[in-house]
Amino acid sequence: MKNDLKEILLTEDDIQAICETLGRKITEDYKGKDLFCVGILKGSVLFMTDLIKRIDVPLAIDFMDVSSYHGGTESTGEVQILKDLGSSIENKDVLIIEDILETGTTLKSITELLASRRVKSLEIVTLLDKPNRRKAEIEAKYVGKKIPDEFVVGYGLDYQEKYRNLPYIGTLKQEVYAK
Ligand code: IMP
Ligand code: MG
Predict the structure, then answer these.
(1) How far apart are CA 34 and CA 25, in angstroms?
(2) Is the CB–ligand 1 distance for residue 75 below 6 Å?
């Protein structure tokens, strides 16, 4: 698997340092609040488990599954809800946890849906941000790292459902796409 990578963008240590920094900020901002973390499946799972260990306030977690990508590397601009939350988020301070913010189509749809459920507050934390790719009007309050417009895999991020289990994040060699 490692042989398929062209370059490593974030090492395991880089990722842990980001989680530590974000966790500290989120801890400060959510003291005394009713924090409810919503992980967006499946990409955010690895990031979520590391991040919430660094958040030192009581919190609940749940997951949503949406699809905007259909196996390739380009967004189709369509979002479909595959799994909804299992409980009410009314009056909660909701924090959406996402792996990567690219065009913003996915997060725009999710925030509109969740905001309609009478939440007390709604914010986004994303591990990675590709600001140059943005199409929808949406920004994350907490960003782990801004990256250039390149397709990345690892640490939850996939190419055709593979590479999610890599402990670091990198770019794929051109020959992998040609397969
Ligand atoms: P958006 O709707 O264009 O912002 O896309 C967000 C979703 O697309 C993310 O949750 C990822 O699942 C996927 N995605 C965007 N960029 C990448 C990438 O570089 N590698 C892997 N998945 C990506
Ligand atoms: Mg995703």
Answers:
(1) 16
(2) yes
Torsion of CA 55, 171, 12, 160, to 10 degrees: 70
Minimal CA–CA distance to 77: which of 68, 64, 67?
68
List alpha helices for the chain, DSSP H: 12-29, 45-52, 105-115, 174-178
Establish whether residue 129 lines the binding site of ligand 1, counting it when its CB lies within 6 angstroms of any ligand atom: no
Counting ligands in written order, the one closest to the CA of 172 is 1
Q: Is 103 a residue whose pLDDT tops 60?
A: yes
pLDDT tens for 33-89 read: 999 999 999 999 999 999 999 999 999 999 999 876 555 555 545 667 899 999 999
Task: Enter the DSSP assignment of 133.
Answer: G
- Determine the distance separating the centroid of ligand 1 and the alpha carbon of 162, expressed in angstroms: 14
Indicate whether residue 111 lines ligand 1 (CB < 6 A).
no
**What mean pLDDT is predicted for residues 119-124?**
98
Task: Check if the beta carbon of residue 160 is closer than 8 Å to that of residue 69.
Answer: no
Is residue 114 helix, strand or coil? helix
Compute the distance from residue 89 Cα to the ligand 2 centre, in Å: 21
Q: Is the CB of 151 under 6 A from ligand 1?
A: yes
Question: Active-site residues: which are they?
Answer: 102
Distance from Cα 42 to the centre of ligand 2, integer Å? 6
